[in-house]
Amino acid sequence: MTQTTQIVLAKRPQGAVTDDCFRIERQALPALGDNQVLVRSLYLSLDPYMRPRMTELRSYTPPFELDRPLTGGSVGEIVESRNPKFAAGDVVVGMLDWATHTVHDGRGLRKIDRDAAPLPAHLGILGMPGYTAYHGMLRMGQPQSGETVFVSAATGAVGQLAGQLAKLKGARVVGCAGDDAKCAYATRELGYDACFNHRSETDYGAALDKLCPGGIDVDFENVGGAIFHAVFARMKDFGRMVMCGAISEYQDSTPQPGPEKMFGIVQRRLRIEGFIISDHTAGMGEFVTEVGALLKAGKIRNRETVVDGLEQAPRAFIGLLQGTNFGKLVVKV
Length: 333
Known about the structure:
Elements: E1 3-9, E2 22-28, E3 37-45, H1 50-53, E4 71-81, E5 91-97, E6 101-104, E7 110-111, H2 128-141, E8 148-151, H3 159-168, E9 172-177, H4 180-188, E10 194-197, H5 204-211, E11 216-221, H6 225-232, E12 235-243, H7 264-267, E13 271-274, H8 284-296, E14 304-308, H9 313-322, E15 328-332
Parallel strand pairs: 8-9, 8-11, 9-10, 11-12, 12-13, 14-15
Antiparallel strand pairs: 1-2, 3-4, 3-6, 3-15, 4-5, 5-7
């Protein structure tokens, strides 16, 4: 009988997530049933969308259950299988428990080549965050040569690829990030034309007027709040606002109001569209082929923060919500 170490949701947060929202448990797993597999976790992805799942508010994914393991995108190895689609030794990517081992029915697991790319890449640049950037920027934002594109959270798991894809289309790309080192990385390594520190900058509107004097054609929105409001006021006619996330608002107990002069959407003929990447899984093969080739050719770069040890996942997740990570955040289980 396999023993697993798992992290469960101990309580729902009221405002900011705290350490006591989590609890580490050790538990014996049941024997496998028909079509089940036992998966040993290798890497766990930590992502902002997990924060809304910690509450019982209406969202696009069901909330995590109290006293049950949290789940997240993971890379793991099949240890034992009673499912004809998988064999011991297969490396898979899919949703697994925040745990060392998970009993899984196999649905949603996808076999990957362990030698095709470093395993954490399948949770970042070649995984859900990368596909989010690809779909949102290229299929929705559709940046054109000479246009101005703004990406909030420019060096995050999604933003770092979104900005590079816009640059490859010939756009001028401006971003914001949470410290000077991240802004330097955005301009020196990712190819951003400019980036401002949204923690030290007190007047977002003035910063955008300086860096985007002609206005903004495409906004790839990851942060929300005051930054989104400032960008909205500077969108050009026929601009596209791709609403990917709003991490600055996830821990608010009271929803923030929308930006002023919403009739500007009509006057400037703006398109504002939100999306959930799980609605678009059919197009992921094209993304992996295209971005994988760009990565192999050295035309795009990515950065990861790897935290060692499952027990560190709660603190790492809290840090993610505070912006302390650099690039894609994964836990080496």
